[in-house]
Amino acid sequence: MELATGTGVWYGRVVRGRPLRWVLVRPAGEAPGTLQVLLSTDLALDAAVILTTYAQRGALEVPFAQVRAHVGVETQRQWTNRAIARTTPVLLGLFSLVTVLANRLHAQGLLRAQACAWYQKQAPPFSDALATVRRYLWAETLFDNSPKDTVLLKIPRHQLHIWQEALACAA
Q1: What is the pLDDT, as a whole number, of residue 171?
Q2: 118 or 5: whose pLDDT is higher?
Q3: What pLDDT is stored for residue 164 in this prediction?
Q4: What phi-psi label fits residue 17: left (phi over 0), alpha (psi between -120 and 50 degrees) or beta?
Q5: In angstroms, what CA-CA distances link 157 with 114, 119, 128, 151?
Q6: How far is C-alpha 150 from the geometric centre of its chain's CA atoms?
Q7: Domain limits of the chain?
Q8: What pLDDT, on a 0 to 100 scale, did the predictor assign at position 23?
Q9: Nearest to 51 by CA among 20, 26, 32
């Protein structure tokens, strides 16, 4: 990896004359025009710290992408900013609760990646974790009223499991 760093001044419409540290990064073996530009307003940071901090951002970006995709943070339909300000923390809290419960279910061996025809999943994504949490909560609260040794509820038990699986993944 090749690095170049220095300081400069940022000029823009809103910010005029803001000092910053820049870092140019080119991975080894890449074309000469392939550069990544990183900027920091903290002039005391050296290039290695800026690069390390940038690399760690992936740990934050993946959960936010999954919150947007599966919990609907960016698809809220409220009319006011105050309503959005109330809803977003609740959705992030819901995401956190599902993640904690899915982690516990994974430790018990209950979290599994759903089969996919076009690629092999390395680990269960959030959608599979959400489906597992739904199945667990439904089994513990809604469908746990009948004795375990009966074959029939109001529908055959195997049919109930098929419907639970389909609903858990689709809901």
Answers
A1: 53
A2: 5
A3: 75
A4: left
A5: 21, 31, 23, 6
A6: 40
A7: 2-56, 62-170
A8: 92
A9: 26
For the record, the structure tokens of 58 come out as 């992936």
Q: Which one-letter amino acid corresponds to residue 49?
A: V
Query: Do residues 68 and 51 touch, judged by C-beta distance below 8 A?
Result: no
Location of structure tokens 């025009």: 33
Residue 23 near residue 4 (C-beta atoms within 8 A) = yes
Return the higher-pLDDT residue of 131 and 113. Answer: 131
Q: What is the 3-state secondary structure (H, E, C) of the chain?
A: CEEEEEEEEEECCCCEEEEEEEEEEECCCCCCCCCEEEEECCCCCCHHHHHHHHHHCHHHHHHHHHHHHHHCHHHCCCCCHHHHHHHHHHHHHHHHHHHHHHHHHHHCCCCCCCCCCCCCCCCCCHHHHHHHHHHHHHHHHCCCCCCCCCCECCCEHHHHHHHHHHHHHHC
- Calculate the CA 63 to chain-centre distance: 2
pLDDT for 101-129, tens place per residue? 999 999 998 888 777 777 777 778 888 88
User: Is 39 in contact with 13 (CB distance < 8 Å)?
Assistant: no
Q: Is 154 exposed, middle or buried (0-12, 13-18, 19+ CB in 10 A)?
A: exposed
Amino acid, res. 30: E
Reading the block at residue 165, the tokens are 């699986």
Looking up tokens 């903290």 gives 42
